[in-house]
């Protein structure tokens, strides 16, 4: 394996309803890439209910969502802030407003942004794609991108 200059911190944001993170982690491990991954809490119920578990039962609706979103933002904003690269995946199952926010936050911080989504999303995500350094269609493409940017010859 070529020598590496640094260990890269890669934050994996967005879709929590598919195994894309596992595919990227496995591909990078197989390639021996010098990366450490972070991500938001990917257990949907745990994320939605974190305020209840930490602060006690919250009023239902807006205030419960508001309190949980703020607690989750501590983790997400910190991880994005420390990341060398932010990969944001837009999945097909749900609208991905959180993914769009994370992509915008990363772009505002000047973080190298890689967007991952199906080809059919190109028009809907044209502004997000325009802010990205790369737009990938598969987890394999993300692994190859990480291989290219993290290894020295």
Q: Strand percentage, roughly?
A: 15-25%
Q: Briefly note the structural class of the backbone.
A: alpha/beta
- The parts where pLDDT drops under 50 for at least 5 residues are none
Helix content: 40-55%
Count of discrete alpha- or pi-helical segments spanning 4 or more residues: 7
Q: Report mean pLDDT, rounded to a whole number.
A: 93
The CATH superfamily appears as Response regulator
How far from one another are the termini? 9 Å
- The strand line-up of the biggest sheet is 2-1-3-4-5
The arrangement of helices and strands along the chain is EHEHHHEHEHEH
Provide tags for this entry.
alpha/beta; Rossmann fold; five-stranded parallel beta sheet; 5 strands
Description:
- With 153 residues, this protein is α/β, with parallel strands linked by helices.
- The chain has one domain: Rossmann fold (3-Layer(aba) Sandwich), CATH 3.40.50.
- Helix content is 48%, strand content 16%.
- The chain has 7 helices and 5 strands, in the order βαβαααβαβαβα.
- Strands 2-1-3-4-5 form a 5-stranded parallel β-sheet, with helices on both faces.
- α5 links the parallel β3 and β4.
- α1 runs parallel beside α7.
- The longest helix is centred in the middle third of the chain and has 21 residues.
């Amino acid at each position: 394996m070529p020598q590496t200059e640094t260990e890269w911190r890669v934050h994996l944001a967005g879709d929590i309803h598919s195994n894309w993170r596992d595919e990227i982690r496995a591909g990078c491990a197989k390639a021996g890439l010098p990366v450490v991954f972070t991500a938001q809490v990917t257990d949907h119920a745990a994320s939605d209910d974190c305020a209840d578990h930490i602060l006690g039962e919250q009023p239902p609706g807006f205030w419960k969502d508001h309190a949980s979103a703020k607690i989750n933002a501590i983790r997400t904003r910190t991880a994005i802030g420390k990341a060398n690269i932010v990969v944001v995946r837009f999945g097909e199952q749900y609208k991905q407003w959180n993914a769009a926010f994370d992509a915008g936050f990363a772009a505002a911080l000047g973080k190298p942004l890689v967007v991952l989504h199906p080809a059919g999303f190109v028009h809907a995500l044209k502004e997000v794609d325009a802010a990205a350094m790369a737009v990938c269609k598969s987890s394999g493409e993300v692994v190859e991108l990480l291989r290219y940017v993290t290894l020295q010859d």
